[in-house]
Design a protein that fits this description.
This protein is of the alpha/beta class. The protein is built from 5 helices and 5 strands. β2, α2 and β3 form a beta-alpha-beta unit. The radius of gyration is 16 Å and the shape is globular.
């Protein structure tokens, strides 16, 4: 089994987008098309948010690959910070933002999804993907925060390391996910 995570492309938005359902920009579409060129998978599983799912549908149709949409792969819900430019958050709530970056478990944004809920839904989704994949190569199209959390989990890193993990738009991340890692 092989799982590869792909972050969605650019949306031309400059803020914590979270679960806002943004479309890809033209740049985002071209980033994703370039990222998958010459690569092969046996199936695709995607977040339900359109910045992931629209490209997943295109790729699935173009290559004749099975596609499953899984809402559990959606990005973290940033609560009151969702859609607010990061510069404004830094200006108005700089201490809270620094605390979130240092320890997202203990210091979530106001009104945000609990970190435990985010972790549990992502890990359950990956457990299911690993169980159903067998020896197949699976492309999972998801979000920057989701990729950072899953990498921390697999690499046994503190979630406080998430802010330091580079996950550019349309970047690919192999993920060795042993069944039961979420336990």
């Amino acid at each position: 089994m092989s799982i590869e995570l792909l972050r969605h492309g650019d949306t031309a938005q400059r803020s914590y987008r979270g679960q806002l359902d943004d479309a890809l920009s033209e740049l985002g579409w071209s980033q994703l098309r370039a990222a998958v060129q010459g690569r092969e998978w046996d199936g695709i599983i995607s977040s339900s948010l359109q910045r992931c799912a629209a490209f997943a549908r295109e790729l699935s149709q173009a290559r004749g690959l099975p596609l499953r949409i899984d809402a559990r792969l959606a990005e973290y819900h940033f609560g009151a910070w969702q859609g607010v430019p990061i510069e404004r958050i830094a200006e108005e709530q700089g201490d809270a933002l620094a605390q979130f970056w240092a320890d997202p478990v203990k210091h979530p944004p106001p009104g945000a999804e609990t970190f435990a809920a985010f972790r549990d839904r992502l890990c359950a989704a990956l457990d299911d993907i690993a169980l159903e994949s067998g020896a197949r190569r699976v492309l999972v199209i998801t979000h920057g925060g989701a990729i950072r959390l899953l990498r921390c989990r697999v690499e046994q890193r503190s979630y406080g390391d998430m802010a330091g993990i580079e996950v550019p738009h349309a970047s690919l991340h192999p993920l060795p996910w042993p069944v039961g890692v979420s336990a």
